[in-house]
Automatic annotation (TrEMBL), chain A:
Residues 1-21 form the signal peptide. Residues 435-549 form the MRH domain. Residues 169-282, 392-419 form a coiled coil. Gene3D superfamilies: Mannose-6-phosphate receptor binding domain (2.70.130.10). Pfam families: PRKCSH-like (PF12999), PRKCSH_1 (PF13015). The keyword Lipid biosynthesis does not apply. PANTHER family: GLUCOSIDASE 2 SUBUNIT BETA, N-LINKED OLIGOSACCHARIDE PROCESSING. GO terms for biological process: N-glycan processing. The keyword Transferase does not apply. Keywords: Coiled coil, Disulfide bond, Endoplasmic reticulum, Signal. GO terms for cellular component: glucosidase II complex. This is Glucosidase 2 subunit beta.
From TrEMBL, chain B:
Pfam families: DUF5110, Gal_mutarotas_2, Glyco_hydro_31_2nd, Glyco_hydro_31_3rd. This is alpha-glucosidase. Pathway: Glycan metabolism; N-glycan metabolism. SUPFAM superfamilies: (Trans)glycosidases, Galactose mutarotase-like, Glycosyl hydrolase domain.
Amino acid sequence: MQHPKTLALLGAVCSLTVAAAGSVPRGVGPEFISHYQNKEVFACIANPSITISPDRVNDNTCDCPDGSDEPGTAACAFIDPRSPEQPLIGSPSGTTNATRSLPGFWCNNKGHIGGYIPFTFVNDGICDYDVCCDGSDENGSVNGVKCENRCAAMGKEYRRLAEERKKSVAKANIKKREMIKEAAELRQRAEARIAALEKDVKDLEAKKEDLQRKYAQVQNEEAGKIVKSKGGRGGKLGILLGLAKDRVEELREALRLVTEDREIMRSKKNELEAILMQFKQDHDPNSNDEGVKAAIKSFEDWAAREASADQSEFLESDVNEILKEDDETNGVNWKAFEEQQDDTDILYDFDAYIPPFIRDVLHDKIRIVRQWLISNGMMADPATDGSESSVVKAAREAAETAEQELGHKTRELDQERSDIQKDYGPSDIFRALQGKCAEIDAGEYTYELCWLDKTLQKSKKGHAHSNMGNYERTEIAIADEEERVDGRSLGSGPRMVMRYENGQTCWNGPQRRTDVWLGCAEKEEIWRVSEAEKCVYKLEVGTPVACEDEDVKKPDEKDEL
Amino acid sequence: MRSTMGLSWKWTALFSLLSAFLCLIEPTLAVKEHDFKKCAQAGFCKRNRDYADQAAAQSSTWISPYQVVLESPSLKDGQIQAVILKTINAAGETVRLPVTISFLQSGVARVVVDEERRQNKDIEVRHGSAARKERYNEAAKWSIVGGLEPDLKAEIVHQDDSQINVKYGPEANFEAVIKLSPFGIDFRRDGASQIKFNERGLLNFEHWRAKIERPEGEENTEEDESTWWDESFGGSTDTKPLGPESVALDISFHGYEHVYGIPEHTGPLSLKQTRGGEGNYAEPYRLYNADVFEYILDSPMTLYGSIPFMQAHRKDSSVGLLWLNAADTWVDIIKTKGSSNPLSLNAEAPSSTQTHWISEAGILDIFVFLGPTPQDITKKYGELTGTTAMPQEFALGYHQCRWNYISQDDVKDVDRRFDKAQIPYDVIWLDIEYADGVRYFTFDPHSFSDPISIGKQLDSHGRKLVVIIDPHIKRVDNYPINEQLQSLDLAVHDKDGNIYEGDCWPGLSNWIDCFNPKAREWWKTLHKYENFNGTMENTFIWNDMNEPSVFHGPETTMPKDNLHYDNWEHRDVHNLNGMTYHHSTFEALKSRKKGEYRRPFVLTRAFFSGSQRFGAMWTGDNLADWGHLQTSITMLINQGISGFPFSGADVAGFFGDPESELITRWYQTAAFYPFFRAHAHIDTRRREPYLLGDPYSAIATAALRLRYSLLPSWYTTFFYANRDGSPILRPMFWTHPSSEGGLAIDDQFFLGSTGLLVKPIAEKDKYSTDIWIPDDETYYEYTTYNLVKTQQGKHVTFDAPIDRIPILMRGGHIISRRDIPRRSSTLMRFDPYTLVISVSKSGEAEGELYVDDGDSYEYQDGQYIYRKFSLKDDVISSADAEGRDTRKIKPGKWLKAMRDVHVDKIIIVGAPASWNREEVQVESEGRTWSAKVNYQAANGDRAAFATVSHIRARVGENWSIKLA
């Protein structure tokens, strides 16, 4: 009973494997055909000194140390750099840890595109149609599994989708060209602005210099004019001094109160912080009480923010300095001011020695001269300024205004210049996206991508938003994603990745960051978001920016040339 | 000045912030020990330890107040029934404790002691509690499944006023000498004492007593009542409605220096002493299933599961003990040097081990095993508590888990990347985040909107999905499962009889009470495919948190005065709880669909004696550090000799981010875990093996492929575990009970009976190791076929660069492999076999292969292949291991398909030159054909080896190959 069955089986194996002269054994790729065709003996490809008869090719026994005698079975799949090591005489390493001569099992896929699948996928009872639409990877030796040839249908569907995709890519490329145009316009406008600004700056510099010169001149002219201020001891300055002193005392007192308040708040904060830390320490970390979890998370976020937040410039030592009483070594030396006798005081003193009638006449004369001086702008009006004449003031203000205007324009120019040098990607194309954002809903969050700015995770449950990173740079990285029928996939190959870094710090972890991978699509759309590990996000985003087309031949290179 | 001041201010601030954060982080790096009781904080443990101290202090004048009264002093049906009278006061009042001593056909003796007054319900329960009046006597109902046939040949061979001698055992070479006053039993084998009960007089049966309410300030002057009644710990109070009720006994192992078992702990295989001193523990080993967060190493502290089974061993002799009690249990161990034993006249007497078992409640129920071999102990323990369930074959493959794969896209992507990297795996797991708001039996509608699509993608390559289902049921409105749990009254109750509420992953929750038969039936309905939407035939279940873990509960579990079905207190059943839940899920998976009769796969964290019948366990939330890697080996070996070998530890550590070297070494080690699963905490970085980078990904892949190539041997080893309870990772004392030097070795093991001796590298920067050789057989290096120059008792140095696992092949074995790397174990089912023969010193070898469909129970109807391969007198042959005439078995679908599966290659390591020839003849079932031979002479250290290929011998048929 069993004998005939075995023979039948062996026969089946033979018919499937061994080639009649001229035919190519199963699984041999086009570039290796010459090794197998029309040979009296088969020589192992990497070890030609080892020869076997052609009927031992694809006989499901591995004879060659490079595995080349089994192009159509999995019998040599154990020869692999990732195999558990065993001695293998004749292989380069002398062990099974070696590279085979053949890249894999060749599926011819007539009517579609041929390709290699790993030997480990051959004769395992699974039809690997994604690469092997002709079903040649299963020859029925495993549990009777054979695979029908689906190349006709799959090829047709593939071509249909490819056509569709091509159309879509074409549309996307039209969009892309529009974007490039828009970006170029934006760049031109920016360049025009720079040119205008450069001119403005130049003019302003000249104006500023001129006015400064004038100011200096006026100051000079005013110098040496003796002026007497009204008022009591020390005149206006003295009053000011008194007022200032009182005011400083008042402010100091207020600051002292505020500082005390702050100390109280600070100790309260520390107390609360200690309570929360204790709470965090003591709570069962396995707990999933929503309230506890939310509280701990908020605390952690807060703590992380606290840790990363810039410390106030307002330094403790500054406050303490200010709080000290003023004296010769600290703060304002009021005494020095109070005791100082200026030129007008000397005048007063002189005044005291002359007779009253002369004094009155003299005062009248002085008053007239002074009025004349003031009206002619030669002396500052005491009603408007304690020490500066209106002429000086006007000159000074004019110079200052010019300087401010210059500073403003210079900054504007610097911004524009750095913007024009900023990496806006090939053909400056991201210029067209600046200021725009895209969103996607995912579970309890909405994710927002603002081009060249930042990525955000927005809670739908009312928790705080988290910054997932700020735009740093764009790089090229190798994508390896499953192709999708709807085309919303990065696929495989080099793709633009926009790196968003230094987002909000994660508790007990790094700062959040996001890799924004770009795939070709007709419009800006976030395909999916994932957080493979905590606080490291990946956005897969479709945009015409990422499209490549025959019509747009390496625009980036063209542009840079 | 200002700027430097500012700078220093900023630095100070930075440091203070840093230190504040370190304070936040640090406590999470170690177990919160204060959350768990020390013996002195558990009233009953302290009382019994104090009792032991008192006895030791009084030494020779100490008299145990327990005497046996023989009311019907006959041995009937292998049983002696009597009453122990406990004298409770100076006035001579006594309490009656009925005792039953049973002798079983297997040679196991069983001693049960109960309390008559409580049997008769003649007591009062305080606080108006509904708790049962009897002592808990149902542990056996859950744990014991067989082996209770009485030894009808047992006979009383001597009896007088002081003792009764009973001969029993399969060869009548066992003897129990029952001492009447004070009560004690001396178990002897071949006339020599092995195990003694109450030798030190520590038997303590805390009888029920009424609480006498005394006026304020007045205290019991005779006894310290302080720990008798309500006890508080960590902010919760145990109302103890039955007062003090502990049971304790000292059990001595005479002449035994080593005791093993009583998992789950992190210490060495050979248990340490527990009453202080250099290198010893100061606390007893504790058995109280608990969710211990970030547990510590080398500690007697309790963990997630418990098996109160202890084995004692000395050269050439093993004995054992099962203390069948499910309450909180502590075990003190002290070891005495032979000369210090006052009873011994022989100064050269070997060391002995004295143990002291203390349980909080329940009856005394002890099984005594007298060996004499480790195999006898394991087998008989298996007969009583059951053996490892025949596993789903895929479950021996590699499991990829993470808390959490966050969406169905994520799962599918991981699946795809494994294939892309050509790394085999069988199962991907979903932790709690898949369920909608941790409502078990639902899938999150956003991230897992189409779980069936996952199942189908996995199934397309023979893979499986495991989802977690925990025993806490979210207490929330509009969740039908909680509504049913409440309305059908199937949950655990609190001490007042209300449905117990506690906190766990979903927040406020209730707990299913699987002691309730109706709850178990209900549990089945929940798992049916039509009720658990999103599951299909390749979905299996993970049971976690079944200690049970209750956040904020006393010792992270339920209050002891909670009430289970039939009004048993949680105190009585705590250690059984996890097993009843695991068991319920196991049964539920068997009834998902009418007519479907397949083996379940259920992983559990909590366990007890008997859990091995329901699936696998893992060692819980370990850490990604080298110490945990090393300890995992010991813990899994201990699981194996304790009857529950289907065990694993999270690869490469649950908490933390392991360095590449640690991950790689962990994969190499875990390739030899019976249960091989990678798992990681939600805060860790991704570390799937394809992410490790060069060269680590390739090395981890090779380790995984090694595991897969050896699956036929693994499955055969599981078959043995199912058949006779034998361990899968076998320690030296178990395989070589006569080799004294190996009795405490716990970092190397044999894989089943393959002869593969493995000593994984579990230390950083370590690139060689010393393997202890247990016998005088030939040993070869597995990867190189190098001959190891060695002899019994020698340590041989094995070079182990990062890409090499220290594995030796012991001469005399034949192992089965499948060498074609595949994507999953399912896809290897019909691949040809390779046999590897390591030739022994005598030129012989033997090995077995068991194979069935790996999924159904059809093996029970003979649908399996079980071969014995042997090499003898230059002939390799294959015969049915049970001598069945396989041609008479009507083949089912699987067996038919196996007719086309061959043994296609045989590698003979250590082949003599006489086998150097071109071809050999294969003879099978009356036919003869030739196979090719490639002979490689010895070269340097490498032994000669011959490869016979193109054999084409059907694996299920008889065949032979003559080599010379």
